[in-house]
Amino acid sequence: MNRLPITRALISVSDKAGLVEFAWRLHGAGIEIVSSGGTASALSEAGISVTEVADVTGAPEMLGGRVKTLHPAIHAGILGDLGDTTHLAELADRGIEPFGLVVVNLYPFEASVAAGAPDTEIIESIDIGGPTLIRAAAKNHAWVATVVSPDRYHEIADAVDRGGTTATMRETLAREAFFRTAQYDAAIVNWFEADGGDRLAIALSKVSDARYGENPHQPAALYATGVSEGWWAAADLVQGKEMSFNNYADADAAWRLTNDLPVGSAAIVKHMNACGAAIGESMHEAFRKAWACDPLSAFGGVVALNGPLDEATALEISRYFVEVVIAPSISAEARAVLARKKSLRVLLAAAPSSHDLNVRTIDDGFLVQTRDSVQAGTEGWEARSRQPTTDELHNLGLAWVVVAHTKSNAIVVVRNGAAVGVGAGDQSRVGAAERALVKAGDRSAGAVAASDGFFPFRDGLDVLAAAGITAIVEPGGSIRDDEVIAAAQEHDVAIMFTHRRHFRH
Prior knowledge:
Elements: E1 8-13, H1 19-28, E2 32-35, H2 37-45, E3 51-52, H3 53-57, H4 72-79, H5 85-94, E4 101-105, H6 109-114, H7 119-124, H8 129-139, E5 145-147, H9 153-161, H10 167-192, E6 205-209, E7 221-224, E8 236-239, H11 245-259, E9 265-270, E10 273-279, H12 283-292, H13 295-298, E11 302-305, H14 311-317, E12 324-327, H15 332-338, E13 345-348, E14 357-362, E15 365-370, E16 382-383, H16 390-404, E17 411-415, E18 418-423, H17 429-440, E19 448-451, H18 459-466, E20 471-474, H19 481-491, E21 494-497
Parallel strand pairs: 1-2, 1-4, 2-3, 4-5, 11-12, 12-13, 19-20, 20-21
Antiparallel strand pairs: 6-7, 8-13, 9-10, 9-11, 14-15, 16-21, 17-18, 17-19
């Protein structure tokens, strides 16, 4: 394995983590370190010999530090092809020494945006020289190693101790470097376009491989933009097999649903649709009520709890086959109970983030929207027939959240703080109502229902009322609203309009 020795390094970093220790190792290997600004000061204060960039270029920093490394004496030393005699002659003629290592991390633009800094401060956080150095070194990776993250310091220092970097290592570093500049530029573009502009730049890096995709023959992986704040990024897989594409998709759907419900709720999701959701006096009660909604569909599903997973709930869950359990915390006793089910995945996670970008693919294109949001509260709803009772209103709030998380067309039937029938993904609204009622059975008598879209005809409401539904919540907005309201009055059904639709495709 051929190694390329490093005799000269350029270091210019914003993030000083691990810098001094790394530089000492380079210094100990006899490598000349060239640096500028705060990096040079930090190294000098640590007692490390540093050559100032200004001493190399013969030009002091300008414009408050905006111009310091943008000079042929620096960039020729990075870009020179050391296998080209013409390049070597030009470098020698100008008295320019080549660099074998360029270590750069960029001004914290993303952090400035996230912190809500004023525009003037954010503009000053746009790095110019840094990306130029990175791209130059990455382009010339045949001769130069490019480091853009402190995570690589030990690896590079170890390579120096072994005689230098390998071609494979330099190519890997170049790939990482070009991605970092692409990611950085994407963040800048998206900041400029944050007011609803016409451009969206997304730079994704793989976080982990998934076991497989929607089907075992489909490779799959989990990607994120930068450092993700998504619940899954810091989730703790306490036990069980690696997550598959479907596991992640269903876990996200279940976790979002249960976190939109009051504390003390449980949800069960299968193929991105709820097959159970309930509020209880305890997590054990909430889970039992949720499972009772549709035990047949719940088999092999994902269970989400928005309260601590205790021993009683774990014992109840262990009676059934489920793929994933997700909760904010778990007791030692509950962990011991579920440990007997070796294949069961148990995830501990924080609440979902506030990130609201929703992206879907179509053929060689993307559909982008703001993520839907829904609250369990009933403020702002309009009664269009009789007023619902307190119990009906409480159950309507639960039904409205669940139906918003269910594939359209959707009807959800709720009774006593638990979903008892979910009709999901039907091509007609009356069909969704019929499917929900089949699953609810006798439990539909005295229950309430929610519809994610308005009733285009009165037939859907008639079907629900005939089964014993006493109150309904829907967006309203149909040209036949008067007919639907008249049907509700005929059946003595309380009907509430939210004036907000929750389609989900």
